[in-house]
Design a protein that fits this description.
The protein is mainly α and 82 residues long. It is built from three helices and no strands. The longest helix is centred in the middle third of the chain and has 38 residues.
Length: 82
């Protein structure tokens, strides 16, 4: 009975879409931030050694920022698209 009442409020297919989107965002956002943080740490370590900027560190930062920007863009598109 409770499930039938809940399904009138929010269809189960929509609920599962929301659940999947939340799970994806919960995994990708922390991974993106971790890439940025480790990239900045590697870049600081390379500068401390006097090696200049490490290409791998820059790539970590770029990939992490791209993942976060991608999540933001998908979220905005989902809000605007009806």
């Amino acid at each position: 009975m409770i499930l039938a009442a809940f399904q009138d409020y929010l269809p189960l297919s929509d609920f599962f879409k929301i659940l999947i989107a939340s799970a994806i965002a919960a995994v990708i956002a922390p991974c993106g931030m971790a890439l940025v943080i480790t990239g900045l740490g590697a870049q600081a370590a390379a500068n401390a050694r006097g090696d200049g900027t490490s290409a791998i560190a820059v790539m970590r930062i770029v990939v992490g920022v791209a993942a976060l920007v991608g999540l933001i863009a998908v979220g905005i598109i989902a809000l605007v698209d009806k």
